[in-house]
Specification:
Blueprint (H helix, E strand, L loop, with lengths): L1 E5 L11 H15 L3 E7 L4 H5 L2 E11 L2 E10 L7 E6 L15 H18 L6 E5 L6 H7 L11 E5 L7 E2 L19 E2 L2 E3 H8 L2 E4 L2 H6 L8 H6 L4 E3 L26 H16 L7 E5 L11 H11 L5 E6 L3 H13 L4 E5 L3 H10 L2 E4 L9 H7 L3 E5 L2 H6 L10 E3 L4 H16 L1 H12 L5 H15 L6
Parallel strand pairs: 1-2, 1-6, 2-5, 6-7, 7-11, 11-12, 13-14, 13-16, 14-15, 16-17, 17-18
Antiparallel strand pairs: 3-4, 4-5, 8-10, 9-10
Helix pairs in contact: 1-16, 4-5, 8-11, 9-14
Length: 475
């Protein structure tokens, strides 16, 4: 079975968030399960690309925005990621350092999608499945069924995975000329609320769509930034599959980024040694429970609650808790978090930005991870946390609801239903009460670290879905 994954991100080539982690791991685990899975990305002038060798395997031209452009397809030589990696290069368009936020981003990702389709059309490449991730690849299911140029590919099953339905790839109908020749009688498949909506087109035209947790599939029908009616209508096409984590990368026994490796049986001492070094780095005490936040400082993550909640906790639980925040995002949230440093130097530390190695050290050294997310389709941070014996303290929404069971329900985390500052403070209070009982805390660490959130389980669900769609004569 041949499966091609299309995505804007793939760790460690290019990553902004969970999308990159998923696309960097799922294909590897699919290959280990016997599926020939590959990844096709836009070319990025980043460290991984600069430090590894690629062969040019194809070169041609296609049309976007009414103009003909040349593109090249490059393949990484050594298969070092556990799967074949292909990059699509277009001079002046797909040769940049950053992934998003260019003024011509629409043209950037449309050209990437057209180049991919043009490449497989002009060659003998005929995958059994084309697996698209988020709106950046959402036009592919429409184009291979409704473009007059590429209709010979229409029999290939397409799957769209929605990692975050809030972002949809909108463009005005004045940009329809960016697309190759299409059957205009089918233009309604592109439209939602009088604009071209890439995610909506993908949901309408793909054979199946998946969400990154079962609960998020249900939530899309009531909260999806204007697509609620569409997800209600297309619900039978949807499948919720919880993301996994790459347990080879996220493994406290072997992780080269942490201070001291540890296993389930040595977690108490191992975590303390990591905590000690981490707290020294931030100038705070390692003898108190450490509560952390790792993620984007945006409303979607409930990050605007953090400054008030942290300050209230430091006053309410005076001298009994420390906090560390790692993240970047909305300037006003960053400023508010920085201001807390002067007031609470020995109890609080913040790093504005993102540092992959520091995130590993924080997971290894922390006692509790806060996730006050407003929207969390799956969430990976809570899965990394339990892998390292760090208890998640989460707002019960999306994938957090699927993956974190409250300790009062014989689980391993702390959950709350209302997204309010006081609720977060109360949840931290519960965490501190648990921490007081060293024996219970140790048992809960062991329980968390014994959980299986690996991609092995999730990959099997994807394979079953692939098999259900493959047309016998196309195999």
């Amino acid at each position: 079975m041949d499966v091609i994954h299309l995505s804007a991100e793939c760790y460690p080539v290019a990553k902004v968030g969970g999308l990159g982690d998923v696309v960097g791991a799922l294909p590897k685990y699919l290959n280990q399960a016997g599926v020939n899975a590959s990844v096709v990305l836009p070319y990025y002038d980043r460290k991984f690309v600069q430090e590894n060798e690629f062969d040019e395997i194809f070169k041609s031209s296609a049309t976007a925005a009414g103009k003909t452009f040349e593109y090249r397809v490059l393949r990484e030589k050594t298969r070092k990621l556990g799967f074949e990696l292909y990059l699509i290069y277009i001079h002046g368009l797909l040769d940049r350092k950053e992934i998003y936020c260019y003024p011509d981003e629409i043209k950037q990702f449309i050209s990437y999608q057209i180049s991919f389709i043009d490449w497989i059309y002009k060659t003998s490449i005929r995958p059994d499945i084309i697996h698209c991730h988020d709106h950046h690849t959402g036009l592919v299911p429409f184009l291979i069924t409704n473009s007059q140029l590429y209709k010979d590919l229409a029999y290939i099953p397409t799957i769209c995975t929605i990692h975050n339905g809030q972002y949809q790839g909108w463009l005005g109908w004045d940009k329809v000329s960016y697309l190759p020749s299409i059957d205009l009688s089918k233009a309604g498949l592109l439209d939602w609320n009088n604009c071209i909506n890439s995610l909506a087109a993908s949901v309408k035209c793909c054979w199946k769509f998946t969400t990154v947790s079962p609960n998020y599939l249900q939530e899309l029908s009531v909260n999806s930034n204007g697509l609620e009616k569409l997800f209600t209508m297309e619900k039978k096409k949807g499948v919720g599959i919880i993301n996994g984590i790459d347990v080879q990368v996220w493994n406290p026994e072997t992780d080269p980024m942490i201070t001291q490796n540890y296993a389930i049986g040595t977690a108490d001492e191992g975590k303390y040694q990591n905590k000690k070094v981490l707290c020294e780095e931030f100038g705070i005490s390692s003898t108190k429970p450490l509560v952390v936040f790792i993620g984007r400082l945006v409303g979607e993550k409930g990050a605007e609650l953090l400054p008030a909640a942290i300050e209230s906790c430091l006053k309410t639980f005076k001298g009994k808790v420390n906090f560390i925040v790692l993240g970047s995002g909305e300037p006003e949230i960053e400023i508010a978090l920085k201001k807390l440093t002067a007031k609470h130097k020995k109890q609080y530390g913040v790093y504005i930005g993102y540092d992959e190695e520091l995130s590993h050290r924080i997971y290894a050294g922390a006692d509790f991870l806060m996730m006050p997310s407003r929207v969390e389709p799956c969430g990976l941070n809570q899965l990394y946390a339990v892998r390292y014996g760090t208890m998640p303290v989460v707002h019960s929404t999306g994938g957090l609801k699927d993956t974190v069971i409250d300790v009062d329900d014989d689980g391993y985390g702390i959950t709350y239903d209302k997204l309010e500052v006081q609720e977060l403070i109360n949840a931290v209070g519960r965490a501190l009460n648990i921490y007081k009982d060293a024996s219970s805390m140790s048992d809960l660490r062991k329980k968390m670290m014994s959980l299986d959130f690996s991609w092995d389980r999730s990959a099997k669900e994807y394979i079953d879905l692939y098999k259900s769609l493959i047309i016998p004569h196309a195999v």
